[in-house]
Design brief:
This protein has helices at about 10-15, 65-80, 85-95, 105-115, 125-140, 150-165, 165-185, 220-230, 235-245, 250-255, 300-310, 330-340, 350-365, 370-375, 385-390, 395-410, 420-425, 430-440, and strands at about 25-30, 30-35, 40-50, 55-60, 260, 265-270, 290-295. It has three domains: about 10-85, Double Stranded RNA Binding Domain; about 105-200, Tyrosine recombinase, N-terminal domain (DNA polymerase, domain 1, Orthogonal Bundle); about 215-375 and about 395-440, Orthogonal Bundle (hpI Integrase, Chain A), CATH 1.10.443. The protein is an alpha+beta fold. The strands form two sheets. The protein has a four-stranded antiparallel beta sheet, with helices on one face. It has a three-stranded antiparallel beta sheet with strand order 5-6-7. The chain has 18 helices and seven strands. About 25% of the residues are buried.
């Protein structure tokens, strides 16, 4: 059982006398009044470092540093430790920054290095953050000190990005500036978060751009054009597989054979994949950064069977034509759509397959919204709801869903049939009417 330490009092500190040997009085939580045989009294703070070693900091002499002020120092260090900041390193940084002009860029790069080590960013995100800072921030205020930077300078940074139309970058840059200033305060470089007011600066909202998707009425035309296409077989199979599974581009492009259980008909997209040297972003896995399960229809399994002929000797499902360890280009599907006669800015793009599938599944009246969202790998925005539903995979329903979608594609190979009529054809009018009546209760 841990020994209970009675906190010190001001009278005990002042009345303590020197002895033949130096000794310590303990206030608890690492705060110690060290009394030397010479009569000098010194405050010390002891704590355990992340590596398990003991850190020891001298705070100052008593009574110049009172018990109350020594405890305030201890609270500051406890706060640093809670934020994974070593108090000794913090003090060393303070000393190195003191007496010299510290530029915004130098502190921002320190912030970036430390934030990267927390593991909150993927390698891609860390690289993109630094690229954005280089492009939009350092060029304007990088060489300025924190004392020199005025609110108007930060507003100019934000406005210059906004003028380029990069609304998403504006919001992220605003958050990062606030975070960098908070970091600078923790390093005693500045005392005021000049960037904090940026959260109230009005930014023009840009109308969200939706990925174009074909009306379901035009599915037969798409399927017939693809069937008649004379392009590379792997490209055609990639298009078909994208249609049948409606996954995101990077989830599809970087797929590996060892992710597939062909007997059980399951594709397990990992949160992160092993990076392939020379292949940018090849470590990308499931978008939500947790494993995503995709049931495979018999049609999707047949496509994979055909792909074995062309890429079975590669670890990758869709390798480059001249490099089995590489991956097809991110523009492969859109280039194919353009070759088939579609405008990928207006008619349909690869990402539009997801919207087409989602639309058809909803119109089918067969599946729960939650199951459709899980298949689409969409993140629940309601955090309370997420706490209750994040474990639900709806796997049985999603197996039925993916098979319905593949059968629906087959049914549209020659002439169009609506999702509702296809469902009615499968189940009959009476069952559908019963389903609606049940929902209405």
């Amino acid at each position: 059982m841990a020994k209970t330490v009675a906190p010190l009092s001001e009278s005990k500190c002042s009345s303590s006398k020197p002895r033949d040997l130096d000794y310590s009085l303990f206030d608890g939580n690492g705060l110690i009044l060290y009394i030397r045989k010479s009569g000098t009294k010194v405050w010390r703070y002891k704590y355990k470092k992340a590596n398990g070693k003991v850190g020891n900091i001298t705070l100052g002499q008593y009574p110049a540093l009172s018990l109350k002020n020594a405890r305030e120092k201890r609270r500051e260090f406890e706060s640093l430790i809670a934020s994974n900041v070593d108090p000794i390193e913090h003090l060393n940084n303070q000393r190195s920054h003191r007496g010299k002009a510290v530029t915004f860029e130098s502190i921002a790069r320190e912030w970036h290095r430390e934030y990267k080590t927390t593991g909150r960013w993927s390698e891609d995100t860390a690289e993109r953050v630094l690229l954005n800072l280089n492009q939009y921030v350092f060029s304007q205020i990088g060489n300025m000190t924190f004392d020199e930077i005025r609110p108007r300078d930060l507003i100019q940074v934000i406005r210059s990005i906004e003028e380029k139309g990069f609304t998403g970058v504006v919001k992220k840059t605003r958050q990062r500036l606030i975070s960098i200033y908070a970091y600078a305060i923790s390093r005693s470089v500045t005392e005021t978060n000049t960037a904090y007011f940026l959260k109230d600066v009005f930014v023009k909202t840009k109308k969200p751009k939706h990925h174009p998707q074909l009306p379901l009425e035009k599915l037969p035309e798409l399927l017939q054009r693809l069937e008649a296409d004379n392009g590379h077989p792997v490209t055609k199979l990639c298009m078909l597989f994208a249609l049948h599974t409606f996954t995101r581009s990077s989830e599809l492009r970087f797929a590996r054979w060892d992710e597939f259980d062909l007997e059980k008909g399951i594709w397990r997209i990992p949160a992160e994949r092993d990076p392939v040297p020379g292949e940018r972003f090849s470590q990308r896995g499931a978008k939500m950064r947790e494993m995503h399960l995709i049931p495979l229809s018999k049609q999707a399994l047949n496509i994979l069977g055909e792909l074995k002929t062309y890429s079975g000797m590669s670890p990758n499902i869709f390798p480059k034509s001249r490099n089995l360890n590489g991956f097809i280009s991110e523009s492969t599907i859109n280039n194919t759509l353009r070759r088939l006669g579609y405008d990928t800015q207006k008619d349909v793009c690869g990402h539009g397959f997801r919207g087409m599938a989602c639309s058809a599944l909803v119109q089918s009246t067969l599946f729960q919204k939650e199951a459709v969202e899980k298949q689409m790998s969409h993140q629940e925005r309601d955090q309370v709801r997420l706490a209750y539903t994040h474990q639900a995979e709806y796997l049985d329903e999603r197996k039925a869903m993916i098979n319905w979608w593949s059968d629906y594609l087959d049914a549209n190979s020659l002439d169009h049939i609506s999702p509702y009529d296809f469902t009615k054809q499968l189940l009959g009018e009476e069952i559908i009417q019963f389903k609606y009546a049940k929902l209405a209760k």
